[in-house]
Write a structure and sequence with these properties.
six-stranded antiparallel sheet, five-stranded antiparallel sheet, alpha+beta, 3 domains, 238 residues, 5 helices
Length: 238
């Protein structure tokens, strides 16, 4: 049985040798090995380039490549910062996997620079205005599939998508010294007050147009509401 390499050239395999995974053949090419299943219906061709990189492709018996699209996995996290860090160091998370941070109403897509597809983004990046999913994925099927899967998951959870949220009456901006940034889109003062006080407490230190947590770690500013509105027990005259 013959197979083809990545350039479409025929690869002639040698005699079959029994192997625990099925039947392994020893090809005449030093760069390629072919592994057949027990029924000789599938062949896995592994090619090693001159740089030592390995490329693996699955072929059927007629040498037609099987287009097996990666199915995005869903990973849940307690915070968007944790999700961001996991994308950098957790080998189980692949580009295109879906990131869910329910506490922050954030759903995103794993990447070197993970993005949020929800109105809330937490510590994740957001696409610039006008950039489409296809433009972001740049031909990477796994990333595009992940983007669509993330949108479906966000809709299932009832989280507004980026660009589809209703205009917020009040925006509460949060920044921390470790680089964390997020903006809460609030429909009313009650929501805005709750969001602000969750980050810096009910009686933060008040500066000129901003509020800072007692430990100096988190700063809150707002559009559409005053600090007097957000922290009524703490602001005397501004």
């Amino acid at each position: 049985m013959d197979a083809k390499d990545h350039n479409g050239q025929a690869v002639v395999v040698g005699d079959y040798v029994d192997d625990a995974r099925g039947v392994m053949s020893q090809p005449k090419s030093g760069k390629v090995m072919a592994i057949f299943d027990d029924n000789n219906t599938t062949i896995l061709v592994v090619e090693v380039s001159s740089e030592g990189k390995r490329y693996e492709d699955t072929w059927d018996a007629s040498n037609t490549r099987k287009q097996e699209q990666q199915i995005p996995r869903i990973h849940t996290f307690d915070s968007s910062g944790e999700a961001y860090d996991a994308c950098q160091c957790d080998d189980d998370i692949k580009n295109g996997d879906v990131l869910v941070i329910a506490k922050e109403k954030v759903v995103g897509v794993a990447d070197t620079w993970p993005i949020a597809i929800t109105a809330e983004n937490g510590a994740l990046h957001q696409l610039n205005i006008g950039v489409t999913a296809e433009g972001w994925a740049k031909g990477a099927a796994a990333k595009l599939a992940g983007f669509k899967a993330a949108q479906a998951e966000a809709r299932r959870l009832g989280f507004p998508l980026d660009g589809e949220a209703e205009p917020a009456a009040i925006k509460v901006h949060v920044e921390a010294v470790d680089g964390f940034k997020t903006t809460h889109l609030c429909k009313n003062l009650t929501e805005a007050r709750k969001a602000a006080q969750e980050h810096v407490g009910a009686t933060p230190d008040i500066g000129s147009g901003y509020a800072v947590s007692a430990d100096g770690v988190v700063k809150v500013t707002a559009d559409g509401a005053s600090l007097r509105d957000l922290f009524p027990r703490n602001v005397v005259d501004l």
